[in-house]
Amino acid sequence: MKKHFIFIISFFLLTAAISQNTYFRIYNSLEDNTIYSVAETTNQDFILCGSIETFQGSNFSNAQLLKIDALGNIINERILASDQNQSLFSTLRKSISNGNIFYLTGKIDSVSGNSLNHLIKLWKLDENLNFVSDYSLNFGDSLNNIPQSFVNVNDSVV
Question: How far apart are CA 51 and CA 42, in angstroms?
Fold first, then answer.
């Protein structure tokens, strides 16, 4: 009986030691923030992507990346700050072959002279929010385009 009791106690202690922490966190901000996607880094931090208003009450947003630790503390932040371009990050995925690399989709809309540019973007970034490379597709003055999703296939993006 004593062996069974020790096994049961050991099982519950082990389960509690490796279980995931869950928390609810409110990040105070005067601007409206929207998060669209989350990915976990190799050291159990999280990268969140989305957008933030340029200033309070604005309908103009800039792309935002946040890196938080397992307790929700903000470690790093990156914003594509501009009052000329509207941007957002929509989907974030970890590379299949390299856990330190992430792929990020989003858009950048801008006006230059008499032309509108609606760029769909794909960024490659490391887990410290540094951009390694980026690719663009310009839809010109077409409707507003927002990439919704993509799939990693053998570390190629589809």
Answer: 24
